[in-house]
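U., I forgot to send this yesterday:
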Amino acid sequence: MTLPPDFTLRAYRASDAASVVEVINADGQQTLGLQRAVLDQFGQVRLMRYVPARSHKVVALNQQNQIIGYAYLADREQSIVYDTGGAVHPDFWGKGLGTQLVRWAEQQVAVLSPSAPSGIKLVLQANLFENEQRAGRLFGRAGYTQIREWLHLLLSLDAPPPSPTLPDGMTLHPIDLEQDWELIGPAMEEAFSDHWGSIAVPLPPAPQPEPGPVVETPADESYSNSPGFCFMVLAGSVVAGGILCNAKLVERSDTGRIGSIFVRPRYRRLGLGGALMLSAFSAFWQAGLRRIILDTDADSFTHAPKFYNQLGMRVYRREFLYEKAVRAGVEVRRLAV
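Result:
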């Protein structure tokens, strides 16, 4: 890889975390006017977008050995869909460093691609907010195409939300985030099987790691699904739908986020989605969180934006998904109705 003069790349180290957060936030303040990263309780970098701890990461250094850039590569779907992201300190924009970080991600995918199922199309993706026009042009020059739009919606609560109502025979329950995954996992898979980007054919399980000592990376779950803010609807003993929410966000502390809402197809159009949303709104209200956000596919097959609009949520920013095919093959994702 040919880097711009006076810059070097090396693998990310745990001791880099504070400097990486500084670079990401300098970039974020310049482009979006907001904080995009924090150090979690274990001293690890936490981004607005979840990045698995085992992702590949790299930092860019200047001649003074200062960190001025950062990038990650995450395996999002059994080595079929990869995701990259990162930042360059604004003082070093326009020097070609962002292009090199994208090339680094592509080279990592080339190394990892043999682990993907043979004959299947392999892609690398990046998500960019509408204000990140410089990054959009960078990815465009690198051969990426904008293929999807995500809407970020906002609701400001100024009064307690109404109580949810459910059809006869259905009941609402808080989700036990440690014990209930065997119940809600199959419900989520079935509910999301007709959503954009879901895998349309069964795939073999991901390869298991080689035997040997495993070093567990501490995980700060406080930024994930939050106890007391996640609910499920039962039809008898069957999970008909559910909602998973976050009450601690990187971007700002006064906000709650709807992470996922799902209803099994055979239970749709019974009012379960609205009941689950009102349950979450009520939990946020009781916790003193008045600003509620979520994001959804602008062209949702289930017409999700219309549903959220009916609940009073309005678009406050947009995000775009860019994608590049890095290996030809059969498309196994659901990308159109």
